[in-house]
Sequence to fold (723 residues):
Amino acid sequence: MARAEKKFTNRLILENSPYLLQHAHNPVDWYPWGEEAFAKARREAKPIFLSSGYSSCHWCHVMERESFEDEEIAAILNRDFVPVKLDREQRPDVDAVYMHAVQLLTGHGGWPLSAFLTPDGRPFFGGTYFPPQAFKRLLQQVAEAWRSRRAEIEAQAERLKQALLELESTHPGEIGPETVEAAIAEILAPFDPRHGGFGAAPKFPNEPWLALLIDELWRGDDPKVLEVVRKTLDAMARGGLCDQIGDGFHRYCVDAAFQIPHFEKMLYNQAQLGRLYARAAALTKDALFAYAARCTFDFVLRELTAPEGGFYAAIDADSEGEEGKFYLWTPEEIRAALPKDDAELAIELFGVSASGNFEGKNVLHLPRPLAEIAQAKGMTEEELLACLDRIRQRLYQVRRRRVPPLRDDKIVTAWNGMMIAALAEAARLFHEPKYLLAARRAAEFLSRHHLQGERLLRASRNGRPAGEGLQEDYAFLAEGFLALYDVSADPVWLQEAEALTAAMLAQFWDEARGACFMNRADERLAVRPKDLFDGAYPSGNAAAARVLARLARRTGKLAYERYFKPLAAALGAWVRQHPSGFAYLLLAWRESQAGEAGPVQWAAGGQVRLSGLWQGREGVVWLRIADGWHLNGPEATEDLIPTRLSLDWPACGWRLGPIAYPPPQSVRIFDSRRPWRGYLGRVELRFRIETAGRGPVPLKLQLQACGERSCLAPETVRFKVPG
Fold:
């Protein structure tokens, strides 16, 4: 059958963004963001109408159908404005400037973003979604104001520009332990004890908050923090936020109970939540958390992985023109898909009803805790999970026959960096080789195709580049490379991370005031923005700070500390004023001060790597010592500090038996003829558990690393060993 000819085609047909291509057949004479649009606005003395969104955004689709496909509205836009369409995922720097402007004007934001700009790029009015008749009236009013009250608009634009400059500026201040405590208190304050999560509807996962709370649990034993983390992770994994049949998490929920999602699935949510669930599972041994982590990563490998190895950006909320249609079920559909006993169990497990919970149908969720259901049915939780897995697989096969939502198949560098880091950490925590393989394949793809000399691409699609890399692309990809280095010990990934960090600092560092800009200078933007506050994922500056802190630990190079300190100080006043808005930066600050929380640590300026594991009554700590270095043996004397492993405080109920040290080897130092005894290469320290306590085993290792001609200062490394 011949394809229907489109009535309209505009210049967006030449673009590579799925979102822009969705608008290529609107009657609106769209321009992509760029000099051509601004030149036309200056030449014709017209205001710019900027519409920013992304391909999986439900309300972006609604506004397109209602307004941008309306020929009467399009005629007004084409006559009185220069209409510009922006993919916010390709240019988050541009979107951030005008989103901040709209938030200053209206007190709220969201997508689609609708902003009105002067021909030189200064915003003067804006909003988000507008119904068609309201939008038509607004266009007419703005056009009339532009013709008759230009001076007022210019004054408004200048005031707004000055407010944006202040919002994007940094203010020096000092960060300390009390700042972290204030952030945690501020995060805990809006906790919802009934439903989990934070605040009321709409309810977002708030991954940077959870990252700081889980870091706090690895470092301490705060029962309130544990309650908040457990309740929230459990609620999200059992709720409609999680796709109970096809895996992966939706972006957020429109209700307070995590039951009804906004159905789009974003790669950055999968990366963050998968990593958080994996870390929480290692900490708590909760079977549901481990299950949720594995299901999330398996979803990414199955449905968001390109043949060449990179990861796709998102899956749409809509299919067949309806929000969430692909994900909804009725009792009759479940009974038709499953054997009778499994169908009745599925209806009970997933809270399915004839009336439904979303437009007469059901978003599947698990209203009762699995442990409670398992106990009622005389099963273990693991046995119930096996039944659930069987039901899910059958319903998944049935659901595959439906028309699926569109997939946004661009490969965004920053989000791929997040996923590489998450998969690498999951490979280590779950001892799962396929996650490491996927992380390595993606890293190799990005190194080959997105890294061009010292410049990164922002994204690619079908082999075509899509924009220059932004600061967050360098930071998150460097973090991913470091995670690969940690699990693989391949020095190539450390070298790649160092090269990316050097390029990031050369291109984006603000020499005058500290911290990094989001982009290279763009004369069309009203201000040059800095990504300061965490949002749906950590800020670019927070990611940079964590990379700098980790590189300092792994290399011992003081240059990284010399950048970390002014970066943290530049944001210090903002952090002290709004500590919970900087959760990921505070996590990085903690790592710079006390090392990373969890089962892997670095010592001796990166020359010694520590990790551990326990099972049953036996535990082991592995040391990996760099060539040319050794640690003193456990019986070292004469001013040399011995290597000693012991239980840390608070012990959380753990008691250990004697530590089994391997016999040290002969080593030569200081041109001495006297034999010295020490540890070289790979070393195992074994311990026996006499009394099991709560959480991972808290350990500390006293050590002193020596090279052939000198010894470093003694140090004590604290870390926790999961089971």
Notes: Residues 11-168 form a domain with the Glutaredoxin fold (CATH 3.40.30.10). The first strand starts at residue 31 and ends at 32. Residues 646 and 700 are 6 Å apart (CA to CA).
